[in-house]
Amino acid sequence: MRLGFRRFGVAGMGVFLLMLSAACGGISSSAPDYGPYPVGPGDDDFDRQPNIVRGVFAESLRLGDHIIFATDIDPDLTAVRDNGVTTTDRGLGDTTISTEQRVTAVRYGVVGGFSAAAANRPDTGDGQPRKYLSVSLTAFHDEQAAAAAAAAMERVDLEANTDNLPVALAAFPAAMSHWRPGVPSLGSVMAWKTLVIHVYAELPDPDLGRLADTVTTVYRKQLTELDSFDASAVPDTATVPLDPDRLLARLVRTGEPLADQENFAAFGVRAYSSLSATPATEFMLYTGHGVTALAVSYNKFLYRLRDAAAATEYGRYLADSRDESEYTSMSAIRGVPAAACSQATRPDLKSLQARRYRCVVVRDSYVAVVYSAVDTDVRQLAAAQYSAMANPR
Fold first, then answer.
1. Coil, helix or strand for 319?
2. CA distances in angstroms from 351 to 197, 229, 299, 329, listed in the order given
3. Residue-level pLDDT at 16
């Protein structure tokens, strides 16, 4: 999911500055070529009618914007596993918790879920001492359902093996935890308002004290991240909007507006960062540049910055950067001075998306990046994208 860039030199910055200054003269003011793309502000028609699929997905992403990163707990936990949305309208697919717990949770009315997991090494089976941590947030319709679900989830997992023993966490008496003596892992669940927090920790040695300390630290940091979370009851999940800040509505529509974390979604910075291989690094990169939210729509990305000045700087940074494809600058787009385009000199063969050509487009406090496999098409798409970045309908 990461939109990764590296620098490709001063020439790209020069082209970008030239394009931004062209509105004052120097580049043809003739009408842009929009090709087959719609012109003008975009639309948020995908949010106007109740939709349970969209609502569960949107609530899940809202949880993701409050998930902790594993490296916040232990800097050794750098091998990311299975981060992202865990819930659909058909049930809970969170692989970081047991099948029995997933089945049990659904009985109490799950309305969203997001998890993050990481280990100290890739899962190669090489026998090295392993550390592992998973944290999942699961939302329910109300506090009563969350409390009942947490108790039932702990009970079914505790009773799955007769050797399991309950473990108390002094700092969090509401948490329900258990371990199997001699096994270096500890599982725990705790209800918090309308959510259930599930934690599973592994260490190289079966040290109950260290395991309990690890899980206690997770709860402390996770509750801090949840301080700003609106945990109000969700009476009708189908009414939760995918795009409350109308970011997707500022992107040219080129595919079906079906909620999907890879192809069509609006994110908070933390949720989006958690999907990358280096969540904490990505989060610091985005926030350091002033990115406050972002959206993905197939071959297009939109970033909302804290203000127009930050957007100009971020656009310059992206235009003067490259990803694995090694981009070099292209000539200006007719009638669209606020766009900087480039061509891949070495297309990334691992990419599933069209990455041969890209354009960075700046308008007000927004920056968009669009991709295409065709020169003419990327220019038309960039022109339409600039138009769409006006206030949406």
1. helix
2. 35, 35, 11, 20
3. 47
> Dihedrals φ, ψ of 130, to 5°?
-115, 135
DSSP E strand stretches across 158-299: 165-167, 176-179, 185-192, 195-202, 264-267, 291-297
Strands of the chain, DSSP E: 6-7, 79-85, 87-88, 91-92, 110-119, 132-140, 165-167, 176-179, 185-192, 195-202, 264-267, 291-297, 300-305, 321-322, 327-329, 339-344, 357-363, 366-372
Round to whole Å and give the CA distance between 98 and 47. 33
Q: In this predicted model, what pLDDT tens digit does every residue of 355-381 receive, in sequence order?
A: 789 999 999 999 999 999 999 999 999
Distance in angstroms (rounded) separating the CA atoms of residues 210 and 189: 18
Counting Cα atoms < 13 Å in the Cβ hemisphere of 101 gives: 25
Please measure the distance between the N-terminal and C-terminal CA atoms of the chain and give it in whole angstroms.
28
Burial of 90 (0-12, 13-18, 19+ CB in 10 A): exposed
- Measure the CA angle with vertex 164, ends 119 and 195; round to 5°: 60
User: Residue 383 contacts by C-beta under 8 Å, 6 or more apart in sequence?
Assistant: 32, 33, 34, 35, 37, 333, 334, 335, 336, 339
Quote the DSSP letter at residue 40: S
Rounded distance, CA 323 to CA 10, Å? 16
Distance, in Å, from the CA atom of 249 to the CA atom of 245, rounded to the nearest integer, reads: 9
Residue 14: CB atoms within 10 A of its CB come to 14
- Please provide the average confidence, as pLDDT, over all residues in the chain: 89
- Contacts of residue 213, defined as CB under 8 A and 6 or more positions apart, other chains included, come to none
What 3-state class would DSSP assign to 301? strand
In the DSSP assignment, the letter for residue 210 is H
Q: Any idea which of 28-42, 291-305, 332-346 has the lowest mean pLDDT?
A: 28-42
Contact between 177 and 167 under an 8 Å Cβ cutoff? The reply is: yes
The pLDDT-based confidence of 91 (bands split at 50, 70, 90) is confident
